[in-house]
TrEMBL record:
SMART domains: AAA. Part of the ABC transporter complex HmuTUV involved in hemin import. Responsible for energy coupling to the transport system. Residues 2-239 form the ABC transporter domain. Keywords: ATP-binding, Nucleotide-binding, Translocase, Transport. Pfam families: ABC_tran (PF00005). It comes from Pedobacter steynii. One of its GO terms (molecular function) is ATP hydrolysis activity. This is Iron complex transport system ATP-binding protein.
């Protein structure tokens, strides 16, 4: 279980995240929503252990996240960042195998190779295995990176999977596939936390949605509980219509047209 208890993060005189509390259990998928600058990525960096809360406590499996060593934490959680810079011409399969580094010292075992092959098949990247990572499209690189972080915790019970905008560079097919994989992993017992910008994808896949504004937790609940026109306007400052999808019984968000008057510009 992951428990954030009144955590805040301050840098200089700016409070990027303030007094946020929530928890997630194995078997849940939580999506974080909020406008740009709401504190989503900063919150995720605290959850990953990359940043230490200025105030409050953060525990993973009853132990403070800051008390884990880096090798210990690597066997408890994996993080898919927005950007993953690779400057050397590794093959895609070598990038994926990097996710197994916490599991061996010198050479990967047959099990490590088997997990990498299984995950690459799942993410649709097997045909990219022997291609240079630098030759891949942005979306292909993103799917290879997804494979890398999945193999890291593939065989770890109750592991924590953190994803920062995992579908931003993907086409419609792979957006759905990526989130379907995340959802399936949560049903397998993983704790999955993902930042998304697409409200409808959040409604479709999340067990719970955490809405942030100005670094604070604004709403926390199921899609049906928190996704309505009032809450969306408060968090995103956009007018919308919200309907219930009759097939899924999940909310469906449609933004209202926004007009811009250019005649006032000189």
């Amino acid at each position: 279980m992951l428990i954030a208890d009144h955590i805040s993060y301050e840098t200089g005189k700016r409070m990027l995240v303030k007094d946020v509390s929530f928890s997630i259990r194995p078997g849940e998928m939580l999506v974080i929503l909020g406008a740009n600058g709401a504190g989503k990525s900063t919150l995720l960096r605290m959850l990953s252990g990359e940043r230490t809360p200025s105030k409050g406590s953060l525990t993973l499996h009853d132990k403070e996240v800051s008390h884990y060593s880096s090798p210990e934490l690597a066997l408890k959680r994996a993080v898919l960042n927005q950007q993953n810079i690779v400057n050397m011409a590794f093959m895609a399969q070598e990038i994926v195998m990097m996710g197994r580094y916490p599991h061996y010292q010198n050479n990967p075992s047959a099990k490590d190779r088997e997990i990498c092959e299984e995950v690459m098949k799942l993410t649709g990247t097997t045909h990219l295995a022997e291609r240079s990572y630098l030759s891949l499209s942005g979306g292909e690189q993103q799917r290879v990176q997804l494979s890398r972080i999945l193999v890291q915790i593939w065989d770890i019970p109750n592991a924590l999977l953190l994803m920062d905008e995992p579908v931003s560079g993907l086409d419609l097919q792979y957006q759905q596939q990526t989130l379907a994989i995340a959802k399936a992993l949560s049903k397998r017992g993983f704790m999955v936390i993902s930042i998304l910008h697409d409200i409808n994808l959040a409604a479709q896949y999340a067990d719970r949605i955490l809405m942030l504004k100005n670094g604070r937790k604004w709403y926390d609940g199921t899609a049906s509980e928190v996704l309505n026109t009032k809450n969306i306007y408060e968090v995103f400052e956009i007018d919308s219509d919200v309907f219930t999808n009759p097939k899924t019984l999940k909310p469906f968000f449609i933004p209202k047209n926004t007009t811009v008057n250019l005649s006032s510009l000189s």
